[in-house]
């Protein structure tokens, strides 16, 4: 009888531990769950093909707007041209006009996710400036606007940071950083920025 009880407790313990593992991925630890192909084999995943993907701007804009609305902002615009200095401006995907701050989403990613991407979210390390904005001139040509230093009221979200993985076998999703996890992480980052932003946020969590 004692052996049966011990076995039952062991099974329950494993089940509880597994359930907790599914929910503990967050912005502070998700890089610990990144797998390359050799690690995938060691992990014992069922799929044969491991894919890494990133959240795209069109997926991110509704999330930013949703978090802004939850925080009480109503002065939300899209693709707003914002002055950076006396000679430069940039287009922000989402901007709060009255509160004078906006979000920038850098739409480029490295081949492999790396923790350092969360430390330097601008393009300083890769391009030498905070951000390169591409603008179309009246003659139809495209020119690069190199912005040395982004203003403090522009909050940077970088595609590099919002990756997720999946295999050709859906069973493996419980052991990987999923697309849902990536959305959860970007929401955490947006909320962290909004704690520093001017505006309502009286009941925002």
Q: Helices, strands, pairings?
A:
Layout: H1 2-23, H2 37-43, E1 50-54, H3 57-70, E2 76-83, E3 89-96, E4 101-106, H4 116-119, H5 124-127, E5 131-136, E6 142-147, E7 154-158, E8 163-167, H6 179-194
Parallel strand pairs: 4-7
Antiparallel strand pairs: 1-8, 2-3, 3-4, 5-6
Helix pairs in contact: 3-6
Characterization of the model:
The chain is of the alpha+beta class and 205 residues long. Helix content is 33%, strand content 24%. The protein is built from six helices and eight strands. Strand 2 and strand 3 form a beta hairpin. It is globular, with a radius of gyration of 21 Å. The N and C termini lie far apart (48 Å). The N terminus is likely disordered.
Q: What labels describe this entry?
A:
single chain; 4-stranded mixed beta sheet; 205 residues; 6 helices; two-stranded antiparallel ribbon
Mean pLDDT: 85
The arrangement of helices and strands along the chain is HHEHEEEHHEEEEH
Widest sheet: strand ordering:
2-3-4-7
Strand content: 15-25%
How many strands appear in the DSSP assignment? 8
- The radius of gyration over CA amounts to 21 Å
| Largest sheet entry | 4 strands, mixed
Shape: globular
Task: Estimate percent helicity.
Answer: 25-40%
What is the straight-line distance between the termini? 48 Å
Count of alpha/pi helices: 6
The oligomeric status of these chains comes to: single chain
Alpha-beta content class:
alpha+beta
What low-confidence regions span 5 or more consecutive residues with pLDDT below 50? 1-21
């Amino acid at each position: 009888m004692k052996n049966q009880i011990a076995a039952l407790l062991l099974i329950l313990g494993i089940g509880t531990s597994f359930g907790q593992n599914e929910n503990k991925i967050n912005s502070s630890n998700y890089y610990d769950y990144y797998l390359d192909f050799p690690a995938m084999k060691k992990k014992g995943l069922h799929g044969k093909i491991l894919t890494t993907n990133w959240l795209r701007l069109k997926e991110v804009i509704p999330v930013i707007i949703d978090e802004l609305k939850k925080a009480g902002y109503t002065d939300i615009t899209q693709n707003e041209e914002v002055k950076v200095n006396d000679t430069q401006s940039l287009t922000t995907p989402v901007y709060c006009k009255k509160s004078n701050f906006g979000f920038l989403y850098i739409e480029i990613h490295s081949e492999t996710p790396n923790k350092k991407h969360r430390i330097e979210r601008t393009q300083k390390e890769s391009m030498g400036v905070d951000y390169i904005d591409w603008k179309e001139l009246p003659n139809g040509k495209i020119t690069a606007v190199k912005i040395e230093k982004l203003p403090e009221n522009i909050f940077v979200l970088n595609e590099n940071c919002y990756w997720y993985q999946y295999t050709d076998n859906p069973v493996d999703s419980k052991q990987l950083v999923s697309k849902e996890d990536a959305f959860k992480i970007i929401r955490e980052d947006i909320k962290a920025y909004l704690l520093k932003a001017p505006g309502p946020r009286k009941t925002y969590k």
